Every structure is written in structure tokens, then in C-alpha cells.
């Protein structure tokens, strides 16, 4: 009894949880259909409206006209919201047994519509400096993601077939585009190569989801085709971006041809050196014993990436910023080991914010009233010819890789969609030309941007459909789960040397 009474006394002595008191009901007669004060869903809605109103009031009191119709802040906000809605709507379009359409198409089209509807255009205005800055930030985020996403093990162990697929079609399409655009569109050689490297990159945003869907159903898994294409995609993009930044530096340099070529090589070397130094620094700082290490590392990667892209242009070496970002992100991830995945997640959040802005702003750069019919026609012709050469050369690259005819045809067709890299770098040359106030260079830059947008609109949806339709027809499914499990180690050894 004494023990029991002691336990009761201890329970009584412990503080009991205090439940918050509800405010009194002001009007009991109307509470059943209109509670006052409101609760539940109605209270949540009122709270969100109040928060939005307070936020708008604070921003308006600071920026004044910038957040009203016709201001840059208002235009960016409306563009972002519309791009997100457009992406969601396009992602809802689903056909049976086919990969979903990439949301970036909806974002691109929303930006295009906002720019070309006269009533909307007057209210949704974005200064080209704002637009260029936001797109360059998005480019920095893309480059940081690409650098972090590189697998050092795969880099060391990739077999020749993956190297051929990653580098060969990109370089061949670039050279073909440069040759054709020089004679058809009248672009100078260096601008032809700029356009070629813009078009030479394949889009992981289209290829990877499609490959994952085929891999889930078992198509081509025994032969390693989804793994091959997903592994080669990152290296293809990095090669295209590196070539683009090098040609960009040459195009805007002044002096003799040999001097410009030497300058381009020096920019590449400078970007590599700066990336190596910065990458090693953020490997060790912040140290692992600090708090919030992941957020600090993420901030440093993103901050240094943005600084490299903008700072290289300010310093007069625009070709070095992109390469510096790729190298520093890769080396930093190499030193972080398994912790790199958490930083990649944070960088992915940044991309979720800037992706709608990037594609919306790219779409908003195209004005129908300023397009020239012959430029569009010749641009499409140049792109299609180069794309045909790319498909044929991709088929040649996998001739001795152990695939049958159908599998070779599928790899060649799947290696054509374009989207993310084209949006990221397609307008960079135009932005630089605008800073030079050179009308001829601006025309070349607009031609590059126009063809890049056309490439996205034509190849992204068509490529997704081709992969979804041709995959089940051209690729083989494993005969049984047992044989599939038996083949998987051989597949890894074939592709990655594991």
C-alpha cells in the first residue's frame, strides 16, 4: 500500500500536458454553417491569403513599382507561376505504356505565350538583364548538378563503347551543324561551332525517365542498354558544354585568329586550375565536426558555381566559368564520399526552383513578330540534317559492341532528344552579344537561340515518343527472372568493368 500511494503521488506530481484553449464561439447561431472565428480548411485558406497579402505589402513597400504590373519582379513572379502550371499540365498527359511528356515543354510554351500575347506582354515585362542573370544562375545550378552527378568509379571503368557513344555522336553532330549552318545560314565558322555544341548535347531530362521506365519492364536490361545510355548522357553533356564555353570565348575575343585560339586554350586551362583549387578547398571546409555541414557545403557549391559563371564574364574570360564549375563540383563530391548524395539533394531543390524560370525565360525570348521565315526554315533544315548524321554515326559507334540490329537502331534513335542543355546555354551567346551592343553579333546569337528552341520543341516530345514506342518493339525482355539474375553481373562487368 505504501508503494502504491507513492506511485500515485509521483503521478500527481508530474506536469500534465496543457491543451490549448479554443477561443470562444462568438456567434453560436451561425456556427454550424459559418464558424466564427473560422477553423479547419477555411482558417487555413484565410491564413494563406493573409500571409500572401503581408508578403506583397512588404515587397511593395520596398520595391514599389517593381512588383506591380510592368515591373520586373511582377513579371518574374507571373512567369514562374505560369511555367509551373504549364509543366504540371503537360506532365498530366500520359499515354498507355509510354513515358510521360517532359514538363519542360509546358514551361517553354508558357513563356512563349506570355511573350507573344499582346495584352499580357504589356503587363508581364522582364528586363533582359534580369532575364540573363536568372538564366545564368540556372546554368550554374545545372553545371553544379552535372559535376556532382559524375561517378568516379564509372569514369575509371567505362568501356570503350560507352566512351564512343558519349563523345562520338556529339562531336560529329557539332561538326556537321557547323558546316551546314555556315553555308545555309551564313554563320561564321566559330558561331557555327557554337550552334553545333548547343545542339550536340542529349537531354537527360528526357532520356533518363524513359530509360528507367523501360528498365522497370525489363527491356534491354540483359544487354545493358538503359545503363549504357544513362551513363553516357552525363559525359555527352559535359563535352558539349566544355566545347561551347571554349568557342564562346573565341567568338568574343579580339585579335588575330591564332591569338583567339590561344586565348581559348588558356581559358580552358584557367577554368581547370581554378576548379581544382576551389574543389580541394571545399573538400575540407567546412570540416566534418561542424554543425549543419550539408547546408554549408551546398551553399558553397552553389555560391561558387554562380560566382564562377558570373565572375568569369566580368573578368573577360567567359569560357572558363562553366568548366571551373564542373571541376570544382566533381572534386568536392569526390572528397565527400557518401555524403555527396545529401548535397545533391539540396542542389536538386535549387534546380526545382530555377527550372521553371529557365525554360519560361527561354520561351519568352522568342517573339513571333521578329522571326524570319527563312531563318526558321534553314535552321530546321540544318538541325534535321545534323540529327540524321548523328543517328547514323551513333549506329556506327555500337557496331562492335555485341548488340543486334534492332538494339543498335534503338540506341541510335534514343540518342536524339534535346532540352535541358539547349535551354541552359542556348541564350548565353545572345546575352553576351547584347552586352557588346553589336547588332550583327546579336543576330547570330538570336539565330542560335531560335534553332535551340526549335530543337527542344521538335526533339523532346518526339524523342520521348520514339523511345516509348520503339523500346518494346526493338529491345528484348529477359526470358526468366533466373536468367535475368544470372546475367546481371556479366552486364555490370561489360559496361563498368565491375
Structural summary, described in words:
The radius of gyration is 27 Å and the shape is globular. It has helices at residues 2-13, 40-63, 72-91, 104-116, 118-123, 128-149, 152-157, 160-184, 189-200, 204-217, 225-251, 257-284, 293-314, 318-336, 340-364, 373-397, 405-414, 420-425, 428-436, 439-474, 481-496. The chain folds into two domains: 41-119, no CATH class; 132-474, Na+/H+ antiporter like fold, CATH 1.20.1530. It contains 21 helices and no strands.
Q: What's the count of strands?
A: 0
- Helix and strand succession? HHHHHHHHHHHHHHHHHHHHH
The span between the termini is 71 Å
**What are the segments in which pLDDT stays under 50 over at least 5 consecutive residues?**
481-498
Average pLDDT level: 82
Rg (C-alpha, Å): 27 Å
CATH class of the largest domain: Mainly Alpha
Give the CATH architecture of the largest domain.
Answer: Up-down Bundle
Number of domains: 2
> β content, as a range?
under 5%
Shape: globular
Q: Structural class from helices and strands?
A: mainly alpha
- Describe the main β-sheet briefly: none
Share of helix among residues?
Answer: over 70%
In DSSP terms (H or I, runs of 4 or more residues), the helix count works out at 21
Oligomer: single chain
CATH topology of the largest domain: Na+/H+ antiporter like fold
